[in-house]
Amino acid sequence: MVDYLIHFYRKGSPPFRSLSLLPEESALSIMRRLYIKGSAFWERFSDPCGYLAERKKVEAALYEGFVGKGGAPRTRHPLYLVLGRPKWTERVADPATLATSDELLVPLDIIPRDVISFTYPDSMVSAFMVEQKKPEYYEPEYHGKVFTLDEIREILERKGMPGEGWETKMPVHLAHYIEAQVWDHAVLQDFARQRRHAHEQ
Questions:
Q1: Angstrom distance (rounded) from CA 125 to CA 141
Q2: CA nearest 15: which of 70, 66, 79?
Q3: What is the value of pTM for the model shown?
Q4: What is the rounded distance in angstroms from the CA atom of residue 120 to the CA atom of residue 189?
Q5: pLDDT band at 40 (very low <50, low <70, confident <90, very high)
Q6: Half-sphere CA count of 125, side-chain side, radius 13 A
Q7: Domain extents in the chain
Q8: Reported confidence tier of residue 126, pLDDT bands at 50, 70, 90
């Protein structure tokens, strides 16, 4: 199994921030600034109010699902990463996204297993698939589910990574990867701080 995560974030901004933790007006203001029409990463903020409401609804379901699987989240609002380097990001990369996005690779083994969960695909897309249940796309075995580290490892052993052995029904314009939710902000913020100090020396 892939042994690293990638955190994508806006170039020039600090990594590992949660919009859900901010006062609503602050979060909406940030999303308006982040929005870029036509960007694979940033066009999702075209409707800040709708996005924030849906994000909080999905996070509540993720939290309940993870606790139900024996997880021990330290927060109600996780930080989001991607498992490995998905082929989808290479296929949909556009100049606006590439020019405005940065990434940070995080070793998977620094995250305690009781504070990390997974969804396929992106958690908001996964929830959308459940709401729509379009037969050409909907995969009830995966969509709307929260997976533990052991469960996602077992799936990958059988099927491979999405787009690399695991051929799924997901349309190309929707996020096609395994998302990781980290339910302890401190472990990632400490990692970023240590990495920054190492580069400064």
A1: 15
A2: 79
A3: 0.94
A4: 25
A5: confident
A6: 21
A7: 4-200
A8: very high
